[in-house]
Write a structure and sequence with these properties.
204 residues, mainly beta, outer membrane lipoprotein receptor (LolB), chain A, 11-stranded antiparallel β-sheet, 2 helices, 46% strand, disordered N terminus
């Protein structure tokens, strides 16, 4: 199996950076961004991710920060220097690049994956043990709670376009606002898998 080291960031970066063609055109990646100010907790984390797309393996690092009405994702080069800054303020998204290369897709794709893992879940947690389900925008969001901790979260499109689910599993459970545990993300829409480990976490 050929190993490709890509230390960029999230979601479709993995697919495009290793030269893979996703199952659907990049412009069809659906979802609505929530405004960062709608989430009370502010945090900064640095993550190491390893994953796969088909027979290809990937590894990368990124810094994610949510503060007030701003969500920032800073991607890193293999040398640890800055590659791209993707920033959301309200519903406005901007990109700043530190290398002579453009992002090959809409930067909101990165933000959508970050929000689905950390921000865009069911309101009013913690919840009772078991599965809970709610429609959010045009997606059906399901969460499994045990002992006051979130163990799993899934996203499916109401129109089944694309088919399948995005599944996020939190090892040992997670309470939003705590340091994230090891997280496994399966994106059934595009067919990639990531394991995310937090090396640094700060409450702001």
């Amino acid at each position: 199996m050929r190993r490709t080291t890509v230390r960029l960031a999230w979601g479709l970066v993995v697919l495009l950076a290793v030269g893979c063609r996703p199952k659907a055109p990049p412009g069809s990646y659906p979802g609505e961004l929530v405004e960062p100010s709608s989430v009370a907790r502010d945090f900064m984390l640095r993550q190491r991710a390893e994953g796969s797309y088909g027979e290809r393996e990937v590894a990368f690092e990124a810094v994610v920060q949510k503060q007030g009405d701003t969500l920032m994702v800073l991607t890193l080069t293999p040398y640890g220097s800055r590659a791209f800054l993707v920033e959301q303020k309200g519903q406005e998204v901007r990109v700043e690049k530190f290398i002579p290369r453009d992002l090959p897709f809409d930067p909101r794709f990165i933000l959508l994956d970050v929000q689905r893992v950390f921000l865009k879940g069911l309101p009013d947690g913690p919840r009772d043990d078991g599965w809970h389900r709610q429609r959010i925008d045009d997606e059906i969001v399901r969460e499994r709670w045990e002992g006051g901790r979130l163990h799993e979260r899934t996203y499916a499109r109401r129109d089944r376009q694309p088919k399948g689910e995005i599944v996020v599993r939190y090892e040992g459970g997670w309470v939003p606002g705590e340091r994230p545990p090891s997280i496994e993300l399966h994106n059934g829409w595009f067919g990639y898998r990531l394991v995310l480990d937090t090396s640094d976490y700060q409450v702001l």
